[in-house]
Sequence to fold (660 residues):
Amino acid sequence: MILPALLLALVSPPASPAGNWRAVLDLAGGELRFSLNVRPAGRVLRGSICNGRSCTPLSGIRVAGDTVVLEMADYAATITSVLRGDSLTGIYHNVGNRGPRTIPFRASRGRWRIEPASADLLGSWDATFVTDGRSSPRVLLFSNDSSGFIGAMMSNTGDYGRFWGRAEADSFRLAHFDGSFVYMLTGRLDGDTLRGIFHAGLRTQTAFTAVRTTGRPHLRSPTEMTSADTSAPFRFAFPGLDGRTVANTDLRFRGKVVLLDVFGTWCPTCHEASPMLVDLYRRYHGRGLEIVGLAYEVTGDTAVDAPLVRRFLVTHRVPYPLLLAGTSDVASAAATLPQLQGFTSFPTSIFLGRDGRVRLVYAGFLGAATGAQHDRQVAEFRATIERLLAEPPR
Amino acid sequence: MIRQTLVPLLTALAFLPAPRLAAQAPADLAAERAAFTDWLVHSPVSPYAAVSAAPLDPAGVGLELGDRTARIVERNGAAWLEGAGAPRVLPRNRPALVGTTTVLVTGEPPRSRVMLFGAGRRAVAPAYYPYDPALVFSGTLVAPTAPGSERVLTPDGVEVEATVAGTVTVPLGGGTTLRVLRLPDPGSEESSLEIYFRDGTSGTGSYPAGRFVTLAPIAGGRYRLDFNRSRNPFCAYNAAYPCPAPWRGNTIAVPVAAGERYESHP
Fold:
């Protein structure tokens, strides 16, 4: 029997990770579930990681023997695993200044069961997070869709992407993993109050309580976070991907309504906002809207950053210029756009009137996971642009 | 106040078999150590690759670029690179390549710091004490009586405002209460509960100034304190890093022969 087995081993193709996987990151606070989908595309493999119906493509998949490496290049992250039969086992890791950030990973073939929540959990909740005696507000939005129980979480500076998970009686577990952010919400309904824990990364846990949204504002308005000097036209001058400087004084912007998108290719929320901006450009460019993306990238080194921004441009089919404005921290954005005060978040949208002055600054972006809130933001953006376009040229 | 003592995890797992098996490091710890060693050897910001560190004071920090000198200065809360083409802002807490030098700006104004990395020393894989399951404890974190914070150095020598998270008590040296601080991870939702401690091995097998160990949450609002995961501050790898001063009170009177060892290298 040894010889046939040996022959079989010699002629069998190596096992392939193609297929659907029930994937898990093992956090200190329990398992974070997500879906991993891998499919052949010609001679290579393509894949994505999904939270319910919201998926993030992998930048690459490498297979060597029984080792499978899933790459997320935008976030300098990888999942390195070993394929044994119908299971993958390994670690997720990305690199920081104090060493690698590692989280155990495992997956088994198949799809997760759909486990919607009862009506008691659904709806909008005003949450208060407490860390070491200090509190901060969030809003939680829970609903069901065809993938099961989904959620969104908003802070004063935007949302955390789509959460997906399951509920069992009064308890729930929702997670968001996009290759960079590792978030999980666990908790239970206790009378009229949600009591739970927000998990970030492998070990950070923040307790929260939440009550039904009352209608009173729980978060600051995104238009109140960042203000601007409106006494003069808003100045910007940064190199484009072709190396030529694009500035607010260029002829193309004279008398136009301009929307500046302060973004970064490393920022998942910025990726999510991009289709809306492209849609706005296509709707309103003919009537006088210009959009300019100001990219704040990881290194500040053009040789490294420009290819990332170029990939962003191609991925999202961006028809407007993207400029290399600075590096990916709030201080950099504040320093290179000194007419802003209180810059807090990526993305931030700056609306300039036909006179070149700031008319509105919108901090953050509420993704599709926030449902009606997202729809409201899109409507506000359109209404703002319509209003500015209706103003006479100066 | 009721003192709650962390109990050895093994007391709840008394049925664990032979010591020989139990003395093997768990797979996740082995994977963490392997990833860390790989990072020490290959990362451009490995502590072994550091060649200098300097506070980003008003005069700025000079940077030799072949035949000219660039400067890094802090203005409007950002670190600007001047004299190497058009002025540009350097990222904070992320490495940037300037010429052939990797530059890392850390900390917050007015206590920012510039670290330069290049062809530093050859990395040495960390050495560890044998895994000791008797030095894994679980228990509760006793909250402080009032919220507080203090400025401390992180393992990589960056000054941060840490919040006082509470205390844990371990049954070592007749019962030792250790202060726990929450160290922030700038620009992220993450943070870590850290204990910087000295013990009977400090200077005689482990790093003289002390070691860091992370308090990890487990189920039921409890925490695991695994001294096998104790690790050295970066100043143990390279004197370019400032060394955290030992935290007040966090001294265990007996040897804790677990976690990372220290051998001085020329």
Q: What stands out?
A: Confidence is low (pLDDT under 50) at residues 1-5, 9-22 of chain B. The CA atoms of residues 13 and 103 of chain B lie 48 Å apart. Chain B touches chain A through 55 residues (CB under 8 Å). The first helix of chain B runs from residue 9 to 12.
